[in-house]
Structure formats: structure tokens, C-alpha cells
Amino acid sequence: MQKCNTNCVEKPLSKGFKKLGRIVGKYPWVFFVLPMIISAGFGVGFYFLNDREANDIEEQFTPKNGPAKSERAFIKENFPQSEQFSSLRLYTEGTFASLIAVHPINILNLDSFEELVKLDHKVKQIRVNDSKLTFSDLCAKENGECVLNPILDLMNASINDNTLIDFPWHGREFIGTAIGGVSTYSNNTIQSAQAIRMFYYLKEDQKNETDLWLKKFIQTLSEDANLNMISVSYFTSISRAEEFETNPQTVIPLFSVTYFLAITFSIVSCIRLDCVRNKVWVATFGVLSAGLAVLTSFGLLLFCGMPFVMTVASSPFLILGIGVDDMFIMISCWQKTNVRDEVEDRMAETYQEAAVSITITTLTNVLAFYIGLMTPFGSVQSFCMYTGTAILFCYIYNITFFGAFLALNGRREGSNRHWLTFRKVETPNSDNKGNACSVGGAYDHQTGAEEEMPINVFFKKYYGPFLTKPWTKVFVILIYLGYLAGSIYGCFQMQEGIDLKNLAPDDSYVASYYDNEDRYFSEYGPFVMLVIKNENFQYWEESAQANLNTCLNKFVSSNMVATNMTISWLGSYISYGNGLGLNLTDEKGFMENLPLFLLLSGLRQDVNISNGKILASRIFIPTVNIITAIDEKNMLNFFRETASTCGQNMDLMVYHPAFIFYDQYAVVVSNTIQNIVVATVAMLVISLLLIPHPLCSLWVTFAIASVIVGVAGFMALWNVNLDSISMINLIICIGFSVDFSAHISYAFVSSEKRTANEQAIDAIYKLGYPIIQGAVSTLVGVVALSAAKSYIFRTFFKIMFLVISFGALHGIMFIPIFLTLFGCCSDSSSVQDEKDQTENGQNRSSKMQMSGKSQQSHPNCSTGSDCS
Hints:
Blueprint: H1 10-26, H2 28-43, H3 49-52, H4 57-61, H5 67-78, E1 96-102, H6 110-124, H7 135-138, E2 141-142, E3 145-146, H8 151-161, E4 169-170, E5 173-174, E6 179-180, E7 183-184, E8 190-192, E9 195-201, H9 207-222, E10 231-236, H10 239-270, H11 280-303, H12 315-335, H13 343-371, H14 378-414, H15 454-467, H16 470-492, H17 509-520, E11 524-532, H18 542-556, E12 567-568, H19 569-580, H20 587-601, E13 607-610, E14 613-624, H21 629-646, E15 652-655, H22 659-662, H23 664-690, H24 695-717, H25 724-749, H26 756-782, H27 791-820, H28 828-842, H29 844-851
Antiparallel strand pairs: 1-9, 1-10, 2-3, 4-5, 6-9, 7-8, 11-14, 11-15, 12-14, 13-14
Helix pairs in contact: 1-13, 1-14, 2-11, 2-14, 6-8, 10-11, 10-12, 10-26, 11-12, 11-14, 12-13, 12-14, 12-26, 13-14, 13-23, 13-25, 14-25, 15-26, 16-24, 18-21, 19-20, 23-24, 23-25, 24-25, 24-27, 25-26, 25-27, 26-27
């Protein structure tokens, strides 16, 4: 069988890197110093870090092209903010402070009331701007008076006058969102309540002063208020953004821990008994190379004005793991060269093998991240740009800065100098083959290559033969089927969307407020605006009114909508006209009487009238039992679908400020699938171009799909939602799936062994330890995030843990077993023919022995992403 020749890209690329390696080996100081100068120059870009920080949660965690944003623009244009403040009619969340007071049994008692009054007075006395401005100066107003909390008056009447409070409507006041944990009598009057929520709305046009007041509010409520009967949680309109900004501060201490662990692991895994060929300094500078790459790439992007989102703070952990993995590849290939050759020759051979390998892994990872720029989430775009660029610089610094140090270290080794003291040590002779303090004890005197690590022997003599036994294969297949079943089950349990509470640290006051809100105020959801956009709608015609009522009934028929609570200016106007005997059935009478009614009723903000014509109007539909993310998604879809189907002649639109965040449900799944598909196709193209065997692409596809399904399923079982944060990590899956699968497949199909089992053992022998090294180094780079107080960073750790674990499991267990079951992927007959020719006179084996590598099987250096 003739092997396909697909190395038209790989072969010239390998030759080019061979020349580069020789240049780096000849002029190492140039390639060592120049990257440090460049890093220092671009590192100045961190001066702009504070200016580039983008902590607008709406901008970063909601779709940039979400329909709710265009809906909001329409509301803002047609129903502008009035001087008569109404929280119900805001097109944004507004500027406000809020507190929730909780009593474990019944808050409607005198002691609780007195503490609430005391707390309310304390809030209203908060002063800012050199103590000149108080709440009364900054409050939102209606009829010239501050909008206050009527619930205190209702509590006073209930406690002191035994007045019954109707729920959820008390007169014309909706109190369903002000009193929580309510139990009622049969006549819908309150029997007891556990929580009271109060709002303090501020003006929208004095942002500097109101922000200062809100910060002072947070400070005041965080202090001991000497409250005995009630517990208080609090929140403001700036709390999410402020607490979001504090997330990196919880992670900064972990950086030192992570780098310590990474350096320690790198040093330990590179320790050799030979005190000349010890790779301690090489490992140290490998970690430093990754740090310089982060410094340079981040500085460059900050110079260019790229927004720096908090999620980017997790990127250095990932870059460190990838950088150390590439370092292992370079060291492994260096160790396969002849220690008696000149440094330039050793570097040329190292680059010829290793540089192509890390080029494959770099291209797959960088493309995976840059494809992530297609998503509509700003947080994902920023993370992908910073991480992809950092990986690219990590690659550049590996073949320049780190390669240069490898050459300098090679010169030290060549002169038999101690790795620590740099003093010359004893040169071994025929009687003394080397000891812990002499050169020679750690290399093969026949081939000249450094001796293999004991773990490589373990994979060759013990693990490989054990894995290829028939009963072991059956057991592994059963394990895989269990893995696949659990993954698929988890995918069906997946929930979408990010809980806004998770954007703050775990110990934030925001979390306490959200918990109380969910516990006591989840029964009544938002009042959704139903907007009639058709300016030609005939409001006065009975047929038009009937069509509108039919639409309203479709909304009210849902169990997500409260009955008999719709706020409709049109219904109120018709009742008003019938009560006064007005003729509202023709356009003239309808429009002439409308302005006075809107003025008297306070519903003027619900109708946009221009030149005697209604351009747009709105009705408010109350929702109930919107508790979970699934409820939010279902409610959004139901309202939009109902509005589009029943409002064909009215041009209906639904909107609420919360829809800005709910829009993520509409795009997160489709965008994730889109990114995965596009990235997977890109990975296959790279694999076909740079790995000279087309059958490998089939196994690359299989491994990518298998790992992604596994990560998606088990992340759902690990309480991780599909949102913009986890979407980032699913993109990472693709690159790492290729890293762990493409080269193990190629090592198998290009092996010179006769049988499939022997080919599998050979591939595991060459790649087993490097895969473990790469997996552990990456996990060490992110393990500290498991202790973070932030959901975002813990999620990053969870998914990275799944990606690396499943990827490594596929690389050293599943893929080798599956390959042995499909002999069509083996080129052993072709390989054997070539070996026979070699034995008949070509002496190719002796040439391979002198060069320390196999021309037939490229992956002869023990690398995690082998040297293709």
C-alpha cells in the first residue's frame, strides 16, 4: 500500500526551522537579549491598564447585537424619561439604592418597624459633595416630591391602627415587590411577612453626585447599624460593576502560588542526575519565557486600545501552562541530539524536529481563540484576543528567547561546567563512565543522545503491553461507553445564561442581596412592556380593540403571567369614557378626549402623541414565578413569539430592561456551536497541511468531538452553565483536543512496527510521558484558581480541568485502543517493505543511528505534540 505524500508544507517548513536553529545556536546572545528589550518596551503599555479596563457588565456579558438593545432604543425615542418619575416605565434599571430587611418570623411588628424607620432616616441623611447634598437633593421626583417608600406608611397603619394590607395590590399601589415571604388570609390581606424591600431612586442627570451618594450608601449599610430585630442586605445600581472590578484582586495572590508551582514542577520534571546536563536553569527560563510573552502581548494590546476585561485575568494561567508544554517539547528534542556535536548542529536538529511540532499546536490554539472573536460577547472577544496574541508571542519567544538560552546552556554543557557553580567538572573516561558530578552518566555512549527517563521505559515495557491486552481493551471500551453516556446525559441537563450574582465575589454583599431577593421576592417578576408600534392602528375601532384584547388574552393565558393585573391605558380610557358617556368610537371623539384623560390618570407616559396622532403606545403585562434561568429564557421566548404571531396588524414589540441580559439565552448556544464547527474545520486543515498523513484528520475529528461532548456534559453535572464564560473554555477545548490527539494518531500510523498493538505501544512509548508532562504543567498553571472566591475563575479551573483530563485520557488510553481496532490506519506493510529494502543494502539504519532520529517516523523526540 502506497503511503500518501502530504508533507509538501511540513518538509520545507522543517528545513526552514533547521536553518533558524543554526542561526540561533550561532548568535544566542542576540536572540536572548532582543526579546527582553522588546518586552520592556511593550511592557510600558501596562501604564494604560486603568484606561483600558472595561467593566461595563452589559457591554461585556450581553450580545452586542441583541434585539433588546434595539427595542430599548425604540422605547427611549418614543417614551422618553419624564419629569414625573415612574420606576415601572424606566427603559433602563435606573439609578437607585435598595435594601432588604428580613425577620425570621414576621417583620410586621413594632420593633422591626422602629428599626426600619431608624434605618430609613439614616439613609436619607447621607451627605456627599462636602456634605452639601443629601438624598432630598438627588432623589427622583414625582409632582415635585421625592419618590419614597409607601411601605413604611402601610406598616405604620397596620401595626398601630390594625389596618389590613391588601396583597399584591393595595389600592392603586403594587406592593408585590416591596413585601416578601407573605402569607395571606382568604381575602388576600396580609397575615404575616418576612421581608421588606425599599428603593431609593435618584436623578439620572447628576451621575457624578449620585455615584458618590451610592458609594456612601454602601459604606453606611456595611457599618454596624445596631439592628437587633432585622437583618439587612443592600444593593445599588453600581454594585455589580464595582464588585465585578474587585474580582481580579481575589486572584492576584494566586499568581505567585501558580508560578511557584509551575516553576517547581518544571524544575522537578527536568532534573537529571548528571550535574552538567541538569536542566534546572532551562526549566526556569522556560517559565520566564511565558511570562515575557504575557508582558509583551498584553502591553501591545493595551497600547492599541484593546479593552481589558476582567476575564482576561485568567489568561496568564493558561499561557503559563502552554508555554511550559512547548518548553518540554524543545527540551525533549534537544535531548535526542548528539551531545558530542557542536551547539549549532544540535540546535539545527532540535529546531528541525521541535519547531514544526510547536507550530502545529500554536496554530491550532491561536486560530481557536481568534475564531472566538466571531462571538457577540465583548468578554469573549477580549479574552480571545489577549489569549490568542499571548500564545502567539509565547511561540515566538520559545523559538527565540528560550531557544537562545537552550543554546547558551548547551555551550555550558559542552565545556563540562556544573549547572550551579559553572565550574568545570571531571571528564569521564573508559574506567569512569560518569557519576552525579561528572558529564557522561546521563547519555548513551553509542548514539550520543541523553538517556531516557525511567517513566519512558515504564510506558514501553509495562503500560503499553498492559493496555493492548484483549481484556484490557474490552475494559477500556466499557469505560469509554460509560464516559460517553455520562457526557450525553450531562448535555441534556445543561442550563444557559450567567447568573448576575456570579459576577461578584462569593463574599460580596451583592450575593446576600440576590439570595434574599430569590428567597422572598421571586413570586412576582417584571412588568413587561407590550408596545404597539403601528402608528396607523385604529385604537377607536371595536374590531381593533377586539384584536388587541385577543392578543392580551394569549399573554394572560400563560402560567407566567398574572391575571387581572395588566396595566392598560386603553382599557382605562374606555372605562373612563363609558362612565362619562363619551363617544370614543370615532377618531375625532377618541383623540379629543384622550389628552385630558392621560393627564388625570397619570398615564401620559404610556402614549406617544404627535400632531394629533398616536405614534406608539404601551401596555404593561405582569409576570410571575420567574425564578430560574430557564424561567427567564422561556418567558422571553414566549413573549416575543406571542407578540410576533398575534400582532401582525399591530406591529407589537415586548421589552423590559432585564431583556438586555436575557438576550444571551437566544445566542449563546448557536454561537458556541458556530465557533466549535468553524474552529474544528480550521484544525482539520492545519492537521492535513502539517501532519503528513490524511487519516490522522479522521481521528483528530473524533477526538475533538469526543472531548467537547465530554467537557460540555460534565461541566453541566459540575453546576457550570453554558454562558459567555464557559463558551471561552469550550473554545479552548478544540486546541487542546488537537494537542493530545493529532500526534498520537500520527505516531501510530507512521510507526515502523509490524502489528497494530506494537504500533500502539510504540506511540505511547514516544508520547506517554510528554503528554503527562504537558497535562500536569497546564493543570499546575490553573489549579490555584480552584481556591478563587470568584465564580468566573473557578469556572475557568473546572473546565480546564475537564479539558486537560479528558484530552490526556484520550491521548494515552482511548485513541491508542481505538487505533488498534482499525488496521486500515496502519501502514505496517509499507513500512516493512522499506525496512526490507534497508536490510538489503541501503544502510539507512546506520544513518539513523548516527543522526539519532528516524527518517521514516518523525516523532522520535519524546514530545507532547510530537515532532511531525
